Amino acid sequence: MCGIVGYAGKERCVEVLMKGLGHLEYRGYDSAGLALQRDGRIERITEVGQLENLTRTLAGRNGDLSLVRTGVGHTRWATHGRPSEENAHPHLGGDGRVAVVHNGIIENFSELKEELEGRGVSFRSETDTEVMAHLIAERVEAGESLRLALVGVLQRLEGSFAVAAVSVDEPGKVVAARRQSPLVIGLGEGENFLASAVQALLGETNEFILVENGEIVEIADSSVEVFTSSGEPVERESFEVEWDAEAVELGGYDDYMLKEIHEQPAALGSTLLGRIDTGGVVDLSEVGLDLSEIDRVVVVACGTAYHAGLLGKHAIEKLARLPVEVVIASEYRYADPIGDSRTLVVAISQSGETTDTLAAVQAARSFGARVLAVTNTKGSLITREADAVLLTRAGPEICVASTKAFVAQVAVLELLALALAGSRGVIPDRELREIGRGLRLAPEKVEETLELLGNRVEEAVEVFEDARCSLFLGRGISYPVALEGALKLKEISYLPSEGYPAGEMKHGPIALVDEHCPVVAVIGEGLVREKTLSNVEETVARGASVIAVARDGDKGAERIARLVLPVPEAPEILAPFVCSVPLQLLAYHVAKDRGLDVDKPRNLAKSVTVE
Ligand code: F6R
After folding, report:
1. Contact at 8 Å (CB) between 363 and 333?
2. What is the 3-state secondary structure of 238-280?
3. What pLDDT digit, counting tens, does each position of 151-167 carry?
4. Which residue of 199, 608, 609 sits with most ligand 1 atoms within 8 Å of its CB, as the best mutation to test the pocket?
5. Who has the most CB within 10 Å: 58, 159, 407, 507?
């Protein structure tokens, strides 16, 4: 939550910072601001609300900032203090000698604030960050360099943070540090960068250095120095990121969400590439763990990633006959979990930096579990905490609501299920290979789904026009798909939406049903299809308008539903993919119909780096 950027180099500082913030806006959009070194002072420019407000303000400056070469920027998801001009970062200390941007939480800020107030410092914001600005400024005023001042102040801070600062006294320099929250250095020619995530800097550089926990960094136009928390210089290898700048542009789409929904065939293709051959044989040797030693699997994750975990449970239990527990990471971390070295804990996180998921990983490590991270972000915090990593290769996901990363997570878990099944020999190889060959069809079946749906989803929007809530129903594998559909709808359209196992309806939720509570039913195939149809029929009898996600030409679904969102016939292992696409599009169109910003839903941020 919150995104920070820093720049030192050429006379394009404002452009680089603003572009970087644009790519980090998914981390929060309550306010945005810059602190720029110019003419022997620091200029702070901030605006409440989305970045476009700050862009407009800068446009009104008629290029008077074009000579600025050094600065820091911030996009905020409010934790301490409401979204307001005073609370927007950067925060200034020492009458504006120092400016600070911060992502994270300073837990002991009240004591530090009291102490500073005792020394006559007055505060202009309600944030925790401002204490840092004043503490650094006091040390700078006492003659310390910005870096040493930061080192000294860090020793007094409790909490998690990535922080970047500039000082009037050290033109051309940005100093930064991190504890728990992420920070990367981007390497350029005659310019260097800092950011919360690599996607901020795509288009500027592909060469990065990861800043490790506790380290301090100093960048200038032609130097990058990294120090340990005690001030010893350290050498860090750089690494290349293959993502290109286009991956973070809209590319002709109105919104990132729509773009990312349409990128799902490609995301699935890349995620499967090299991990399953044409014969359906899975190769996950990259994991480097002996899977035959595993006797239990626990999946920990939050939100959409948790739903992917539920789908993974179905696959692993069915194919590998291993017991799987799926636990919400924020619950797991405090649950005093049980396990041993034969337990495989799979931690799923698109961003790789969700605080609760990272804490769940630490809890798992404490009892000796083997931890496998499934993440979309190379080099992210979770990759450094886990024993092994499987990357989803969905490309950067910008929209706050996850779509392509979700299907890629499910694909990785299904690969894992096949690999575990192979190592345990519980299903004949021939059968496993056939299922594997089915999984290889994921990209084309999702493409086919998008084509088959055409404009049908837009027709479904009408059903939601005077809805006051909605129910998403499914059974078996369709139940987690329904949960994910309900989450997508509620998070971007703000319509209360419940995901429920269709068979449980009669035990409570059916009381919600009337003509203002549409039902979205994921019909599914196999054993539970008929049962689901009867459960849904019971809602029709009580006045519900039903939208059914069902195989194209399914007469049972056509009979009960007001509208069918058709999906192509596909092997069972592909059901989560093909059935999720119509629900993602449904959420998208309902939200658009309500005139909402689908990419930046209210109150949310994509990387949840606080508890
Ligand atoms: C919903 C959504 C969130 C995330 C959750 C976990 O669309 O995106 O529910 O899935 O915050 O985030 P990661 O996967 O980054 O740990």
Report:
1. yes
2. CEECCCCHHHHCCCCCCCHHHHHHHCHHHHHHHHHCCCECCCC
3. 999 999 998 899 999 99
4. 608
5. 407
Q: Take atom 16 of ligand 1 and give the residue whose Cα is closest.
A: 349
Question: Could you tell me the residue ranges of all domains in the chain?
Answer: 3-247, 250-440, 449-611
Distance CA 34, CA 46 (A): 6
Least confident of 140-144, 273-277, 455-459, 606-610: 606-610
Q: Is 2 part of the annotated catalytic residue set?
A: yes
Q: How far is the CA of 401 from the centre of ligand 1 (A)?
A: 7
Give the distance (Å) from ligand 1 centre to CA of residue 48: 25
Rounded Cα distance between 486 and 541, Å, is 22
CA 573 to chain centroid: 25
Place of tokens 């405090």: 334
pTM for the predicted model, two decimal places: 0.88
**Assigned architecture for domain 250-440:** 3-Layer(aba) Sandwich (3.40)
Q: What is the mean pLDDT of the chain?
A: 94
CATH 3.60.20.10 for domain 3-247: yes
- What are the tens digits of pLDDT across the range 385-409? 999 999 999 999 999 999 999 999 9
- Return the CATH fold of 449-611: Rossmann fold (3.40.50)
Residues 578-594: tens digit of each pLDDT: 999 999 999 999 999 99
**Common-topology check for domains 250-440 and 449-611:** yes
Which protein residues are within 6 Å of ligand 1, measured from CB?
Answer: 302-305, 349-351, 354, 357, 401-402, 487, 491, 608
> What is the distance between the alpha carbons of residues 166 and 43, in angstroms, rounded to a whole number?
11
State the catalytic residue, choosing from 2, 13, 399, 517: 2
pLDDT for the residue numbered 78: 83
Parallel, antiparallel, or unpaired: how do β-strands 497-501 and 470-474 relate?
parallel
pLDDT the model gives residue 241:
87
**Local structure of 194: helix, strand or coil:** strand
At 105, the pLDDT band (50, 70, 90 cuts) reads confident
C-alpha of residue 304 to centroid of ligand 1, in Å = 5
DSSP 376: S
CA of 541 to the centre of ligand 1 (A): 36
Does 249 score more than 90 pLDDT?
no
